[in-house]
Structure formats: structure tokens, C-alpha cells
Amino acid sequence: MPAYELEIVPRFYETDAQGHVSNVSIAGWFETARITFLEQLLPADMSPGGWILASIKIDYVGETFLGAPVNAKVTRARAGRTSVTIECEMTQHGKPTVVGVAVLVHMDPQTRRPTPLPAELRAPIEAYQVDDRT
Predict the structure, then answer these.
(1) Model confidence over 38-94: pLDDT tens digits?
(2) Of 12, 29, 90, 116, whose Cβ has the fewest other Cβ atoms within 10 Å?
């Protein structure tokens, strides 16, 4: 299965005076990529809610500017017992600008405790097991 990709068009308010996209906006773009990736894998009758962001790491490897689309791509996904680790990269004009990894923990809405991933979610993540870095 090909990597999940999402095109993002930078908006003026997401930039600084030099036209660089802010780090806060990029963190939000990663969230959008992660959540839409999970929504793509979920069965139509299953809610994407019930997640807590446990960890996020973002490395800025190049500049991201206003004026050109950014490609956000999920490059790898791994299912743990109660969590999902999702790695992303962003490119602009075909050049890497940002790489990141996030860990999302699946939570039980009643107990607010981590709960094992349901089979309806685990199966598509395990089937997906994206890794385009080879």
C-alpha cells in the first residue's frame, strides 16, 4: 500500500515576517496528517476519537515557505498494544523540510485509561505497516 499523503497550502497567517511557516503551524499540519491517516484506516462506523497525544518529536531539516504547497506524508506506522506510532515527513518543491514522529495512546472514554487497540483498527495498521525509507 502506498504511503498516505496530504497536500497542505500554507496560508499567510501561518508565517512570520520572513515568510517562513511557523513551528506551531507545522505541528498542527502533522496532527492533520496523523488524524486523517487514522480516519482513512478506520471502518466507516468507528469514531476517530479516543486518542491522547503521548509524545511528539519534530525536526526542522529545511525551511518551509509561503507560496508553494507542502506535501505531508506518513512514512511509517506501527501498532503497539495500546498505542500507535506514526512517522511523518514534509517536503516543499520536492525537498525535505520537516520530519517527525508521534505516539498516540488509545484511551477508554469511561475510565480515561489506556486501552488495547480494537481489532478493527489494529488490523488495518498492521496491514499498512508503511515504510518508504528502504
Answers:
(1) 888 876 666 656 789 999 999 999 999 999 999 999 988 899 999 999 999 999 999
(2) 12
Burial 31-62 (b: 16+ CB within 10 A, else e): eebbeebbeebeeeeeeeeeeeeeeeeeeeee
Largest CA distance in the chain: 47
The mean of the pLDDT values for the chain is: 87
Segment 100-125, tens digit of pLDDT: 999 999 988 888 899 998 888 888 88
